[in-house]
């Protein structure tokens, strides 16, 4: 400032309280305060409140020197949280105010490697490779199973309606024959006398027909336990609690073809995983041309005030480039091309990503939250939310991947991560949160949080809507941020996150060493 103005801290603390409790903008607060100064009792000296621009400059200067920060580590998690809840929030500013200095975790740097063999593979349970047929035949087969299960639910079992489709695939591969045999035996079950067993097998067939990755059904961490299940043909307790599909199979006695189908799916899953890991091993450093592109975007060592990446620790690794993946987000960002993750194919669910970059605004914020409700990382997005935001945030900022990731697009985030970093995410299970799972009609139930809780009731303690609760607070600054400069938007977001974390820490009985008790959210 210019030494002509003096402000008490209470003026700024009052504004912090107001903009985190309601949608009070800086201009609205200044006007309210200005009018209070003018409305003093008659006879007292009238010293007008400062000009709007002066107050704006003073507030931002105060926040730069104010020791408001928490360390963004949850003391209850004791290190890196095993469970991470991810979600994007619509707190965005105008794209025309972008300076080109935002550096989210999605941006490659000089330490990035080029993964030369990583490529898109179909991870669908019933794909052309698992069934040994053409892509069209695989799609038809999956649809016929789905239709048959729907009809069977209404007690209209007519196997002949789908027999031609089943025969078409069965003659080409072992998995098709095994599924055809299973369908025939399920059709023979009596709807009333064997209702529970029949219902369980219908749900099992629907899991097979779902448009989800096979690793949601048979997770790489469970390969040995699944092999034990197939060989012993008995329930495996550890597997039942860890894998929703096998919890389903424990609710009634499986028919013999189930074991054959699971065994063949296990073989396919192992082959896929082996291919993913082998593809990962082929890498090289950046070429001179690629290094030149990186150097144009190098803001290494810059603080969050510039980069918009609000994380407690420095990056532990760099985001790779994937040359064989068409439209790789990392390469697009280096070339200043727009990145919009809203594409899909027949193996993905029908629920698409919300487009935050509407009305000329940036993509909003991506936040990571621990199960106790503490924000453990966030960054501003220049374009709409996508899977790369979560993938890069986890991959570059955490030494070890979490055991569980909860996200409203986990059905697509899982395959995205397993293809690009299979070794890093080998022990990670992805689930769609409870609130959004009802919209994922084409996804396997094994990818949904409700199924995980049924398998392991201990998971009930985790509130998967924590991020939504936090966003209810952050949305209060939506209006303010929408017209701000980039650097002010970053600062406002940072202040809101720190105040939110303080509230959580105080409720848990923890006090940060810089904890102003008069500030609340």
Automatic annotation (TrEMBL):
HMG domain ranges (all copies)? 1-62
Give the top-rank taxon of the lineage listed in the UniProt record for this protein: Eukaryota
Which InterPro entries has this protein been placed in?
A: HMGXB3_CxC4 (IPR040648)
Put simply, this protein is called: HMG domain-containing protein
């Amino acid at each position: 400032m210019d030494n002509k103005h003096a402000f008490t801290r209470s003026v700024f603390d009052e504004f912090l309280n107001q903009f985190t409790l309601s949608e009070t903008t800086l201009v609205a607060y200044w006007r309210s305060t200005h009018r209070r100064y003018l409305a003093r009792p008659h006879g007292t000296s009238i010293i007008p409140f400062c000009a709007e621009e002066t107050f704006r400059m003073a507030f931002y200067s105060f926040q730069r020197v104010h020791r408001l920060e928490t360390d963004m580590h949850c003391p209850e998690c004791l290190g890196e949280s095993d469970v991470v809840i991810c979600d994007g929030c619509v707190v965005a500013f105008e794209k025309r105010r972008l300076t080109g200095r935002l550096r989210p975790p999605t941006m490659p740097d000089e330490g990035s490697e080029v993964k030369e063999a990583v490529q898109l593979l179909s991870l669908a349970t019933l794909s052309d490779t698992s069934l040994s047929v053409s892509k069209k035949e695989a799609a038809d087969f999956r649809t016929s199973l789905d239709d048959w299960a729907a009809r069977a639910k209404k007690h209209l079992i007519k196997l002949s309606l789908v027999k031609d489709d089943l025969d078409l695939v069965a003659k080409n591969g072992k998995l098709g024959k095994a599924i055809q045999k299973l369908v025939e035996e399920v059709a023979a079950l009596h709807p009333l006398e064997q209702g529970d067993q029949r219902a369980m097998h219908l749900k099992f067939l629907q899991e097979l027909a779902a448009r989800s990755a096979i690793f949601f059904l048979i997770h790489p961490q469970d390969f040995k336990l699944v092999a034990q299940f197939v060989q012993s043909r008995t329930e495996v307790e550890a597997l039942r609690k860890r894998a929703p599909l096998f919890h389903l199979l424990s609710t009634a006695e499986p028919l013999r073809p189930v074991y054959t189908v699971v065994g063949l799916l296990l073989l396919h899953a192992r082959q896929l995983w082996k291919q993913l890991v082998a593809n990962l091993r082929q890498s090289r450093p950046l070429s001179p041309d690629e290094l030149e592109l990186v150097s144009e975007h190098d803001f290494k060592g810059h603080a969050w005030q510039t980069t918009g990446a609000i994380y407690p620790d420095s990056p532990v690794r760099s985001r790779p480039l994937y040359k064989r993946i068409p439209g790789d987000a990392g390469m697009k960002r280096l070339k200043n091309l727009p990145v919009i993750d809203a594409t899909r194919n027949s193996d993905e669910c029908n629920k698409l990503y919300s487009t935050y970059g509407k009305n000329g605004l940036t993509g909003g914020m991506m936040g990571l939250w621990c199960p106790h409700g503490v924000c453990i990382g966030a960054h501003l997005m220049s374009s709409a939310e996508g899977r790369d935001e979560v993938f890069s945030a986890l991959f570059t900022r955490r030494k070890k991947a979490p055991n569980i990731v909860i996200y409203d697009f986990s059905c697509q985030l899982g395959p995205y991560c397993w293809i690009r970093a299979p070794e890093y995410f080998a022990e990670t299970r992805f689930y769609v949160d409870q609130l959004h799972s009802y919209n994922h009609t084409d996804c396997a139930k094994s990818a949904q949080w409700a199924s995980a809780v049924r398998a392991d009731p201990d998971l009930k303690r985790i509130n998967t809507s924590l991020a939504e609760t936090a966003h209810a607070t952050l949305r209060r600054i939506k209006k303010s941020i929408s017209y701000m400069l980039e650097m002010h938007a970053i600062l406002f977001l940072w202040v809101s996150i720190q105040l939110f974390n303080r509230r959580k820490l105080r409720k848990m009985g923890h006090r940060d060493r810089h904890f102003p008790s008069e500030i609340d959210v």
